[in-house]
Structure formats: C-alpha cells, structure tokens
Automatic annotation (TrEMBL):
It comes from the Eukaryota. Residues 23-36 have a biased composition (Basic residues). This is tRNA (guanine(9)-N(1))-methyltransferase. Residues 1-40 are annotated as: Disordered. It comes from Stentor coeruleus. It is an enzyme of class 2 (transferase). GO terms for molecular function: tRNA (guanosine(9)-N1)-methyltransferase activity; tRNA binding. Keywords: Methyltransferase, S-adenosyl-L-methionine, Transferase. Residues 62-254 form the SAM-dependent MTase TRM10-type domain. Residues 1-22 have a biased composition (Basic and acidic residues).
C-alpha cells in the first residue's frame, strides 16, 4: 500500500475537520430549532404572533442594513493575490474564514463595511459566486486593488502584522485591505512587501500596545475573521483594547 504524502495527509485532515464542522453546525441549528419550537409551544397565540412578528422585523432590519452598507460602507478588500502560493488546504481555509467574516458582519446592526475580493483568479470567480458571494453582497473582481473604482480618492490602509504603526481607530474616507494569505507555516513580511509595492499605507492591529500580555505568543497572528471583527468594533467606536478582547477567541487568551 502506497504511503500518503505529507500534503495528502494535510488535505485529508482538512476535509475531515471540514465535515466535522458541518455536522457540528447542523446539530447546533437543529438544537436551536427544537428550543425555539418548544418556546413557541409554551406561548399563547397572541404571544406567539408578537414574537414571530418581532423576529421578522429584526431579520428585515438586518437585510436593509446589509443592502445599505453594500452601497455606501467603508470598502474592506480581501486581497487574493497570494492565492497561487497557497495549498488547497490553505485556500479552503481562506474561503471559510471569509465566510465566517461575512456571517459575523451580517448579524450586526449597524454595519460599517462593504466587502470586496480583489485579484481573484479567473477560475475562482465563479466558484466564489456559487458559494454565496452574490447573496452575501460581496463584490468579486479580478482587478488589482489600485484599479478598483470604489477606491478612487480613498486612503488605502493595508493591514500587516509586520507594520510599525498600530491602527487605533478607523479614519474617515479610508479603505482597508486584508491580505488573503492563510499559511500554516507563517511567511513573514509578505503583506508588508505587498503594501510597499502598491504604495499604500500599512498598519497593524494594536496587539503590542493593548493585548501583548493577554494573548498566547503563538496566537498573535490572527485569522482573517478575527481581524474583521476587530475592525468592526473599532469602526463602532470601541476602544482598541476592548475591540481586541471582544474579537479574540477565548481559547487564545492566557
């Protein structure tokens, strides 16, 4: 029997974990439905009608806010220029993290960011649209960052863990770029060099200033969905330290 290569083992592990996460989400959704049905069953007719009407109103408010921000929000770009250098496992993780980012943002009211994917390889555009980018109100383009019309006259800030200057607030008339690089083995300076080639500002999350002692050393390079959450809370006016604490998974903290 032929032994599996290291890459094949990683891919198999990724697929198993992916299926486990799907099953976990399915069980969670089923548990929520059971709990909701039980709660509704204990209500009077009037209480049930009022509760369902309130649910629908909240859902409509979120949809209205999502439609608004997709037109007039702060541009937040996921830069796919790194895609060719990633393994299939890393590429799958990238898409999952973007999906998680969208899921978080679309539950918020108010929302602040309109989402774009730039430098998307031709064969991946259709795949992202099928996965749900269109229904998520995420623009998908093969254009490079500097060629995107929405960014004309915007101050572009590229986020990089290797930057010198921390991001402490969300300035006016700006756009943010998050490097779409998921690397199981950390590749240093990639996003810093990318920002330099684009000629745009580069900043990092203020971990050293506000959370250096709170986060485990091996967890100080964040997943994309965690970065997006920090940006959301900063845009909401939350202080930097609190924004970090609200966003970082509890298992990452000391």
């Amino acid at each position: 029997m032929q032994r599996m290569t290291k890459q094949e083992k990683k891919l198999l592990k990724f697929k198993v974990n992916q299926e486990n996460r799907k099953e976990k989400r399915k069980r969670q959704h089923q548990a929520k439905r059971v709990k909701r049905n039980q709660m509704l069953g204990e209500m009077s007719d009037e209480e049930r009608k009022a509760y369902i009407a309130q649910e629908r109103a909240a859902e409509q408010a979120i949809k209205t806010e999502s439609d608004r921000v997709s037109q007039s929000g702060i541009p937040l770009i996921f830069d796919f220029s790194y895609y060719p250098m990633m393994t299939s496992v890393e590429a799958g993780s990238l898409q999952s993290q973007i999906s998680g980012s969208v899921g978080f943002l679309r539950k918020q009211n108010p929302q602040y960011f309109k989402l774009l994917c730039s430098n998307v390889p031709e064969g991946l555009v259709e795949k992202l649209l099928k996965r749900g980018a269109k229904s998520w109100n995420v623009q998908v383009t093969q254009q490079d960052i500097k060629d995107i019309p929405d960014l004309i006259d915007k101050k572009i800030i590229y986020l990089s863990p290797d930057a010198d200057e921390p991001l402490l607030e969300v300035p006016e008339n700006c756009a943010f770029v998050i490097g779409g690089l998921v690397d199981r083995t950390i590749r240093s300076l990639q996003s810093l060099h990318r920002a330099g080639n684009l000629g745009v500002d580069v900043k990092r999350l203020p971990i050293k200033e506000h959370a250096n002692n709170l986060i485990k050393p091996e967890r100080r390079v964040f997943n994309i969905d965690t970065v997006v959450q920090v940006l959301h809370w900063l845009a909401a006016g939350v202080e930097a330290k609190e924004a970090l604490i609200k966003s970082i998974p509890k298992r990452w903290l000391n």
